Amino acid sequence: MFVLAPDQSVDNPDRSVDNAEVGGLAVSPHTAAVRRLDNGALAALEVQLRGPADGPLATPEALRTVARAMNEKRELDHLTWDVAGTVTADGVPVLVSIDLDSLPGLENRAADAECLRREIVVVTAAIFTTDPSRALRAVADARGRGRLIAVDEVGTHPAAIALLSLIEPDIILLAPAMITRRPDSDIARTAHAVAARVESSGAVVVATGVGTEVQRRRALSLGATYGVGEHLEDIESAPASWPDSATVEPFPPAPTWNTPDHDSRSPHAIASSGRTAVQSLKRLLVTMSTTLETHAAAAGPETLVLGTFQRAEHFTDRTRTRWQNMASRIAYAGVYGVGMGHTVDEGIHQAPLAADDELVEEWNVVVLGPHFCCVLSAVDLHRGEADSEREFDYVVSYDRSTVVRCARAVLDRFTADPSSAG
Question: What span, in angstroms and rounded, lies between the C-alpha atoms of 275 and 394?
């Protein structure tokens, strides 16, 4: 996440402070300018931690990656938080990036600090896939506290793009890879997804790792308004078109999410609100579900698909094969049912349902992507003698707000495997 620290003054946005160590790694805090890409106006300062300048951990991205691998990221975040409490600037916010997992400890540590007044929480694909329920609850809690939400690594992980629809971030952080290589089909797909999100919500796009003038121009062409990187620190190399390098324009994001919280834990209740349910035998729903799965597999690698199968025995070998094929082509596939375990099988994330969960009575297929979304939701009427003649009431919706709420209601059940805790 990003945390806005209290306002004081900073004479030099590039200044460094005393060195420290994290897990035996020498680190140096720095502040980096966040600027508008079109005119160079200073919008914010970001606190960064870097390794030795002549080593492989010289960039904050490299240091964060190694710290995570060493399970030292929380210590790194705590140090960053402490630095952010002392580094501020007149007229612009000071930002510090901190993993979501570090937030509870930091809040307890600084409960009476002014720096808790406003925050921007960053969600990564890894945090979401580890524990979807916890991630979504943390986002809801952050919004309830008036914080802004950002999704990181957009352009590096397809799942990050899938989160744009699910999380509805106020800020989209473009990964350095988006501007350090020539445009290709992957970059084009990401640009389309980002444009769709910005158009529907007004989210702010920030490019990270802007190291050259070419990269600044690429970031602008991808729809980014702001950027951070070495090129934007070296104001002497500013384009002649920039009117005044001393211009200050504070970082402006305001909450942009527009899908209301789901007021029910039942996807069928959400999807059927205002719609007339249709009665059908199971055999039609199987065909409709299969067709929807085919659409999902073709919708692109940024797509998220969820299925609830009532009980594990309904997730047959044939169905499993279809889902495995689909999972290899999309960002996230999750299935739920009584008797399922906490496993990831050929890309399919499985989670159990409690026997008394109301979702046991439902059959849901939820597809959520940047350009295509749909929910098929049915409720078991417990009629019909043969399995293929079981009767259901079902509804179908392509309304994005409805699909997002159904996806969140299903993912609310998907917690991390308790046996992996600690």
Answer: 10
> 400 to each of 70, 197, 299, 333, how far by Cα in Å?
40, 12, 15, 18
197/233: higher pLDDT: 197
Q: For helices 158-167 and 400-411, what crossing angle results, to 10°?
A: 110
Name 63's bridge partners. none
How many Å apart are CA 231 and CA 245, to the nearest integer? 13
Closest by alpha carbon to 412, among 293, 257, 263?
263
Structure tokens at 270: 């959400």
Report pTM.
0.86
For residue range 323-353, what is the model confidence (pLDDT) as tens digits? Answer: 999 999 999 999 999 999 888 989 999 999 9
Alpha helices in 349-412 (DSSP H): 400-411
Q: Phi/psi at 84 (nearest 5 deg)?
A: -60, -25
**336, amino acid identity:** Y
Residue 260 pLDDT exceeds 80: no
Residue 113, pLDDT score? 43
Does 146 have pLDDT greater than 80?
Answer: no
- Of the candidates 106, 145, 119, the one whose C-alpha atom is nearest the C-alpha of residue 3 is 119
Question: Are the C-beta atoms of 228 and 208 separated by less than 8 Å?
Answer: yes
Q: Round to whole Å and give the CA distance between 154 and 182.
A: 16
Q: Helix, strand, coil proportions of the chain in percent (round to 5)?
A: 40, 25, 35
For 109-171, the DSSP string reads HTTT-GGGSEEEEEE-HHHHHH-HHHHHHHHHHHHHTT-EEEEEEETT-HHHHHHHHHH--SE
Beta-carbon contacts of 391 under 8 Å, excluding residues fewer than 6 positions away, are: 279, 280, 281, 282, 381, 383, 384
Q: Considering Cα of 403, then 406, then 410, then 411, what sign does the dihedral take?
A: positive
Give the three-class secondary structure for 368.
Answer: strand
